[in-house]
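Appendix B, Record 12. Input sequence as logged:
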Amino acid sequence: MRSEISSWRLGSTHALPSVAKYLSQVEVPSKPLTRIDLNLASGILKARRELNATEVLMGWSEQSRAPEFFFGSLMENLLRESEFSLLVLRPREPINTTRRLLLIASPDADLEPGFNAGIRSIKRLARQLSAPVVLIGHAGVSERVLSRIRTLAPDCDLVMSKTERWPGLTRALKEQYRDGDFLILFGARQGGLTWKPRMTHLPEELAELFPRANLLLFYSGDPRPDNPNSVMNPESLSRVN
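Logged structural output:
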């Protein structure tokens, strides 16, 4: 695995050495890069195209308030392109203290084009952390999602916690959540097959309900071979129908 770390002159680049040091500790080669752009979102997107990157990982600092982070801002602009996976991590506790991964997915999440590749990444994380995955979802339809997840490698401990209905999700999460849980939202871009209006505010709700929890927002990409600026993820070639 090779990692490219980019920064922009809109802010400080002092974090790059510490990120590179962290990656070296887990034996991931990295190459710090600097980009200059008038707009942070356009700078990230240009760099992604130049590097043929299929994933963009962003940190969510404690100084960033949820409304400022999500609406009319960086996230909204980045999600307008669907050829890459966008991961946003809000770390609050050491990741290696994770006891469970609570995976929040919409009732029809498996209809998203990037579902397989995204779930494989989450299951690999579960194996690395030796933590089970608890799928939080609407009863009935989510049984199909659960079955689909089970067919995808690698194997990991996987169970389901059913909610009566999708709007009751946050109540179910409050009942399920324990110290040491890592929340993962498998999101959908606006206009996507499974996008619902509530998803616009769900990340903000989760951030406010669980201020001390590790939270990962995962927006899986849909690389298109007919687009010269996109890269086909090999895993998408083996999707389960």
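The helical segments are 15-25, 40-51, 66-70, 74-78, 115-129, 141-151, 169-176, 202-209.
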